[in-house]
Amino acid sequence: MIAIELPNTSEPQHSTAFVEDLLAAVSSSLYAAPLFRLAHRHTGCDLLTVFSKTGTSSPICLLNSGRGEDAVLSSAARAYCGRHFQVDPILQKVLPSAAADTSVQVQYRASDASDAVYRRDCYEEPNLSERVGFYTRTPDGWIWLNVYRRADTGAFGAQQVDAVAAFAKVFLAAVLSKQPPQPDSTLSLQEREVVRLSLEGATAKMIARQLQLSPSTVTTYRQRAYRKLNVRNQRELVAGRLSPPVRTDVKGSST
Q1: Is the backbone of residue 242 left (phi > 0), alpha (psi -120 to 50) or beta?
Q2: Residue-level pLDDT at 176
Q3: All residues at 6 or more sequence positions from 175 whose CB lies less than 8 Å from its CB, including other chains
Q4: pLDDT for 37 beyond 70
Q5: Which CATH class is domain 189-238?
Q6: Whether the Cβ atoms of residue 201 and residue 64 lie closer than 8 Å to each other
Q7: For residues 59 and 107, what is the distance between their CA atoms, to the nearest angstrom?
Q8: What integer pLDDT is reported at residue 237 of this predicted model?
């Protein structure tokens, strides 16, 4: 594992077209796929994820898109947020000791994961061999972007690792410059699940399969959640931090 603290005053170098493409992807109502395509083009990644965490709470998966089966990728993200973040050395050791005015970039290989179950659920089963993560502070915690390589596509090169920082800085700056929708504690459990999965980029049909509901029922739950959150559509929901306004505890989690 390689962890580097980067001063927040450093400015990445990128073209106007790159910035325009990235901001357009952030603003898209179907943001997950265009963001992954852009990340793949600039970093050669096979998977893109974005997480946020406040205080001692469990992380939230904000985005999860890439090459691979959706169910496998979603399962890995849920396993990480539910329990494996507790054995992630970046969250438990690197970030708590980082200086206040820095961001952190980490290059982490599957073989670095000393916990066998964490390594199996989050790397081996989704066929991932390496990730590069870029972590930046929020007023009450951290938000970070990860890019991954599959075992069959090899490791990131040095230029690709540098490209991750440039991509992440623009993306996270765009995300943090906006305000997320305010939470509504009256969301039902099903509405929370639908919102969470929508923010991971899942379509109504994908959510219906995962929650064993009909697509029309998913649409109903989503519309109810939009009204309670005072947003009109998915584009408004993901605007700002792309942060889901609700937390969903995983059954059996110790958090």
Answers
A1: left
A2: 65
A3: 26, 143, 240, 241, 242
A4: yes
A5: mainly alpha
A6: yes
A7: 19
A8: 63
Contact 156, 208 (CB under 8 A): no
Contact 208, 218 (CB under 8 A): yes
Strand-pair partners of 3: 106
Segments of the chain assigned E as strands:
2-7, 47-54, 60-66, 102-109, 128-138, 141-150
Cα-based distances in Å from 242 to 113, 142, 181, 229: 28, 13, 9, 14
| pLDDT at residue 141 tops 70 | yes
Provide the percentage of residues in the chain whose pLDDT is more than 90.
27
Confidence band, pLDDT 50/70/90 cuts, at residue 84: very high
Burial status of residue 217 (CB atoms within 10 A of its CB: 0-12, 13-18, 19 or more): middle
Q: What is the CATH number of domain 2-176?
A: 3.30.450.80
Question: What are the CB-based long-range contacts (under 8 Å, 24+) for 172-177?
Answer: 172/134, 172/136, 172/143, 172/145, 174/22, 174/23, 174/26, 175/26, 175/143, 175/240, 175/241, 175/242, 176/136, 176/138, 176/143, 176/241
Average pLDDT over residues 54-76: 84
Measured between alpha carbons, how far is 205 from 231 in angstroms, rounded to an integer?
Answer: 21
Question: Domain-by-domain residue ranges, the chain?
Answer: 2-176, 189-238
Q: What are phi and psi of 119, to 5 degrees?
A: -60, -40
Give the mean model confidence (pLDDT) for residues 156-179.
78
Query: 95 - beta bridge partners?
Result: none
